[in-house]
Design brief:
This protein is of the alpha/beta class. The chain contains ten helices and eleven strands.
Length: about 290
């Protein structure tokens, strides 16, 4: 049994007749018949009822139900063999939001490099929207980010959640109180991530719920820079909970329903990842690094 015979059988099923399958594959019809006779002999079952073009036997129907999986498995094994022969020399293109680049991906890359020292990892940092566009353009294999507003082209697998933390300078007057209501933050300038930030729309919706005069809302696309802008001021900074803080700032205990943002693996829908590939290994190490199992 070889791959050509399996593909011929699959094509016969799709085209409906031996003659149309021969045209599709650019074979003589006798070639099609000979391939099916060899296949039947090799697997030890009769696939077609004699005297009918493509009427399957009961055994043939069971074999037909598995043909796509057999061909995919054959291709996977062939790809694995090729990868082993080449010692898996190549590149892996990975995108990530800022927090993942700072806290998660560096340790995963070190573990990956121990097992695949000849695969180069090319990392791109961006917000979810820009990373999603890069995946569509085939510039990235996958990304660690939030779920894009238009998720229809993608498969998104949530892995963990990010929360929004409120940070202020250590001299901020609100720190003299415990559990400050969110409403009281509105008397101070607010520094947030920009419109492409994962939590920006949730914050602006929350601010719209208050009739009081809203504070100045300053935006910075790079969330890790927000603590530096809030340092030495009365401004209130909104960062992700994983954002490293500078010594001059602290997190403030605020009474509010902080936004929860799912973070996960984003890739194109129906994108097949062969088992044992370096891409699959990186994803496995990533999941293990997050769940610890």
């Amino acid at each position: 049994m070889d791959l050509k015979e399996l593909i011929t059988f699959q094509t016969i099923l799709k085209e409906g007749t031996f003659s149309r399958a021969a045209e599709k594959l650019n074979y003589a019809q006798s070639t099609i018949s000979n391939q099916m006779q060899r296949l039947e002999k090799e697997i030890g079952i009769q696939l077609f009822n004699r005297g009918w073009d493509v009427e399957l036997t009961s055994a043939g129907e069971r074999f037909a139900s598995e043909i796509d999986k057999l061909i995919q498995h054959w291709n996977d094994v062939a790809n694995l063999t090729k990868a082993l022969q080449q010692d898996e020399i190549g590149n892996l293109y990975i995108g990530g939001i800022e927090s993942a680049m700072q806290t998660l991906l560096p340790s995963i890359m070190r573990l990956f490099h121990e097992q695949k020292p000849r695969i180069s990892c090319q990392f791109t940092m961006g917000n979810t929207d820009t990373l999603a566009q890069a995946i569509i353009k085939k510039e990235l294999d996958f990304a660690i980010c939030g779920e894009p507003s238009d998720s229809s082209p993608f498969f998104f697998e949530p892995l963990y959640q990010e929360k929004v933390a409120i940070v202020v300078d250590r001299s901020h007057p609100l720190l003299e109180r415990n559990q400050v209501p969110f409403r009281e933050l509105l008397q101070y300038p607010i520094i947030s991530g920009g419109p492409t930030c994962l939590y920006f729309s949730q914050i602006t919706k929350r601010l719209s719920h208050y009739e009081v005069t809203l504070p100045n809302l300053h935006t910075i696309n790079q969330i890790s820079a927000i603590p530096h802008f809030a340092k030495g001021t009365l401004a209130v900074g909104l960062v992700l909970d994983s954002t490293p803080l500078i010594p001059e700032l602290v997190r403030m205990d605020v009474v509010w329903d902080e936004p929860v943002i799912p973070i996960g693996i984003l890739m194109l829908r129906r994108q097949h990842t062969p088992p044992f590939s370096h891409k699959q290994l990186f994803v496995q190490l990533l999941k293990k690094g997050i769940t610890g199992s």
